[in-house]
Amino acid sequence: MDTGTQKFGGIKRISKYTEENGDEDLHRFVNMVNKEVFLSSKRPTDIQIWLDLVDDCNEYYEELCIYHISLMDDRAAASAFFSLVDALDELQKLAPTPYKKVIKNLAARESYSSWQLKINRRKGNKCLRRTMKYRYDKGYDDYKDDIEGLLLMLRNSRQHSGKWIEEHFVSVVCQHFPKLLADLQKAMFEIRYLPNLYLKHSMGFLKEKGVSPQNRSD
């Protein structure tokens, strides 16, 4: 059927869909959000990352846009992040090449080098400072002042702070590293790990059907 000749009510015709039209729709959507939703307020960093990803109109990142960590509630985002960090730890042992690719990707960002200075200063997050102090008090080697050390410290903060960190983890991390959650998710997506997280379940899309990660068939 030639949709280019269809007429409905006062609409003269429906234009045929093209990738160019689709891209223009995405640009309009992002522009609308920026102007209407955040007209008089500063856009949160994580939402801005997502909007930039959508505005880029890169089909490769379509799945990442749909299940982006910035769209999750705080508990789901924390759970996804910890799962990614645990998976990265396994990759270091079982698949060094993709592990090094992720680390190289993250290490290229200056905000994750010399990260201890941000936490150890007077206004540094108390939860993370306690995690670092615990290691020092136990006589363990200090965390490395690079992205690997940062991820290890954040993973350990979950063990030291219990359920509290699950509820407030996103705020804790974003205080000093507002792009880290999204950066790690994107880096893991680029080595095609993201589907292993069952993000549809994490974001609640499958709850109505009673589908769990254990009984999924896809």
Explain the overall architecture.
The protein has eleven helices and no strands. The protein has 218 residues and is mainly α. Helix 1 runs antiparallel to helix 2, helix 4 packs across helix 10 and helix 7 packs across helix 8. The C terminus is likely disordered.
SSE topology:
Layout: H1 19-37, H2 45-55, H3 62-66, H4 74-94, H5 96-107, H6 116-120, H7 126-137, H8 147-161, H9 163-176, H10 180-189, H11 199-202
Helix pairs in contact: 1-2, 4-5, 4-9, 4-10, 5-10, 7-8, 8-9
Throw out a few tags for this protein:
single chain, 218 residues, mainly alpha, de novo design (two linked rop proteins), 59% helix, disordered C terminus
